[in-house]
Amino acid sequence: MTKVIIAGYAGKMGQNTVKMVQDHNGFELVAVYGQPGQVSKIELGSKIQIFDDLNQINVDADVWIDFTVPTMVFENTKFAIEHNYSPVVGTTGLKDDQIKELQTMAAAKKLGGLIAPNFGISAVLLMQFAQQAAKYMPDVEIIEMHHDQKLDAPSGTALNTAKLISQVRPSHHQGNPDEKETIAGVRGGEYDGIPIHAVRLPGLIAHEQVMFGATGEGLTIRQDSFDRISFMSGVAVAVEKITNENELFVGLENIL
Ligand SMILES: NC(=O)C1=CN([C@@H]2O[C@H](COP(=O)(O)OP(=O)(O)OC[C@H]3O[C@@H](n4cnc5c(N)ncnc54)[C@H](OP(=O)(O)O)[C@@H]3O)[C@@H](O)[C@H]2O)C=CC1
Ligand SMILES: O=C(O)C1=N[C@H](C(=O)O)C[C@H](O)C1
């Protein structure tokens, strides 16, 4: 039985994760962590310990699942590694230097862990296809579309897509060198010359479109997460496999 702690249990992803862990034959939910006074719509059961202070958590567990907020994820993941809980992190917002620090900590303890910008297989495939396409079609723009409660922009998935693309294409400015924005920001933000556009609307969940253009042709790759349940099989696979690893990976594809 893999013993699990869920951080951010009362949030949108947290509630789906509580249910997935409780329904899985090989997992036992031992504790949850969230803000003071939080109530989950999902029945927790009397055996599960509820914490609202990180420093009070001292339970026997194997895996720490994190779906909290970008401002807390570094501190939480550090705490998990320090306490020998294998981190399975979906929360976005970790900076490159923070990831390196966490990887060094995990490696020193030979502790397995995963930071996944996206647990959905459609998004994992989109990122891989986009990286492949960028070798041959280096002019590209990313449009990510999310629900209007999202705190961070661009999405972790869009940023990771841009990072993967920038590994395979020469960095260059796209569009007309004399181009002028008459409305600030209208051409989007840029990662290494790749424009990223973030749409926030009620009704959306999580969607991404990567558009490539070349002389006389174009290619559009798109994925849609219509329901947060779609992330759960990726989270389950990560929890199943991560305690057999001895390093902190970035990207679900590394453990599939
Ligand atoms: N990798 C992936 O596949 C996916 C990643 N995500 C990412 O997961 C994260 C959570 O998303 P989502 O569930 O939609 O967001 P929510 O806002 O619904 O949930 C976040 C939860 O964390 C709680 N929280 C806030 N501060 C703290 C804290 N200091 N300690 C513990 N808990 C805290 C929030 O409480 P309160 O509401 O009271 O502030 C809330 O319950 C985001 O970064 C999102 O981008 C989302 C979907 C898929
Ligand atoms: O906040 C969300 O909802 C999501 N966050 C992740 C991201 O920022 O990429 C994953 C998915 O897009 C849903």
Automatic annotation (TrEMBL):
Chief localization: cytoplasm
Enzyme Commission no: 1.17.1.8
Enzyme superclass (EC): oxidoreductase
Molecular functions (GO terms): 4-hydroxy-tetrahydrodipicolinate reductase; NAD binding; NADP binding; oxidoreductase activity, acting on CH or CH2 groups, NAD or NADP as acceptor
Pathway(s) per entry: Amino-acid biosynthesis; L-lysine biosynthesis via DAP pathway; (S)-tetrahydrodipicolinate from L-aspartate: step 4/4
Entry GO terms, CC: cytosol
Residues given in the record as (S)-2,3,4,5-tetrahydrodipicolinate binding sites: H147, G156, T157
Catalytic site: H146, K150
Any Pfam family hit: DapB_C
Catalytic activity entry: (S)-2,3,4,5-tetrahydrodipicolinate + NADP(+) + H2O = (2S,4S)-4-hydroxy-2,3,4,5-tetrahydrodipicolinate + NADPH + H(+); (S)-2,3,4,5-tetrahydrodipicolinate + NAD(+) + H2O = (2S,4S)-4-hydroxy-2,3,4,5-tetrahydrodipicolinate + NADH + H(+)
Keyword Cytoplasm: yes
PROSITE patterns to which the protein is assigned, alphabetical: DAPB (PS01298)
Cellular localization per UniProt: Cytoplasm
Entries under CDD domains matching the protein: DHDPR_N
Leader sequence residues: none
Residues of the Dihydrodipicolinate reductase C-terminal domain: 123-256
Keywords: Amino-acid biosynthesis, Cytoplasm, Diaminopimelate biosynthesis, Lysine biosynthesis, NAD, NADP, Oxidoreductase
GO biological process, one term: diaminopimelate biosynthetic process
Binding residues annotated for NAD(+), in chain numbering: G8, Y9, A10, G11, K12, M13, G90, T91, T92, A116, P117, N118, F119
Entry-linked HAMAP family: DapB
NCBIfam families in the cross-refs: dapB
Function: Catalyzes the conversion of 4-hydroxy-tetrahydrodipicolinate (HTPA) to tetrahydrodipicolinate.
Annotated family: Belongs to the DapB family.
Name assigned to this protein: 4-hydroxy-tetrahydrodipicolinate reductase
Organism of provenance: Paucilactobacillus oligofermentans DSM 15707 = LMG 22743
Organism lineage string: Bacteria, Bacillati, Bacillota, Bacilli, Lactobacillales
